[in-house]
Write a structure and sequence with these properties.
Elements lengths: L31 H5 L9 E4 L4 E3 H10 L12 E5 L1
Antiparallel strand pairs: 1-2, 1-3
């Protein structure tokens, strides 16, 4: 007879690099700007480019305002998908 069961689960984005190259924070955590304003991970979406590099959407939005290229591979930045 099973009396207790403690379930623990972990998840991770399916990406080559799970650290935002702009702010250097893991993409599963809020970016530095969202952390400083008290927002949680659910408010800080992850964006993937056609090059398959991922960043916090907040970080990448500011980046492409001045440099419309991927920070890692320098390809023209084209959004493939956005997720939370």
């Amino acid at each position: 007879k099973l009396k207790t069961w403690n379930h623990v689960s972990l998840w991770k984005w399916d990406v080559d690099c799970d650290i935002c190259a702009i702010c250097r924070v893991v993409v599963t955590e809020p970016c530095l700007k969202c952390q400083s304003s008290g927002k949680g991970a659910a408010d800080c979406a992850v964006v993937w480019g056609e090059c398959n590099h991922s960043y916090h959407n907040c970080c990448m939005s500011r980046w492409v305002a001045t440099t419309p290229r991927c920070p890692l591979c320098q390809q023209d930045w084209v959004v493939q998908r956005i997720g939370t």
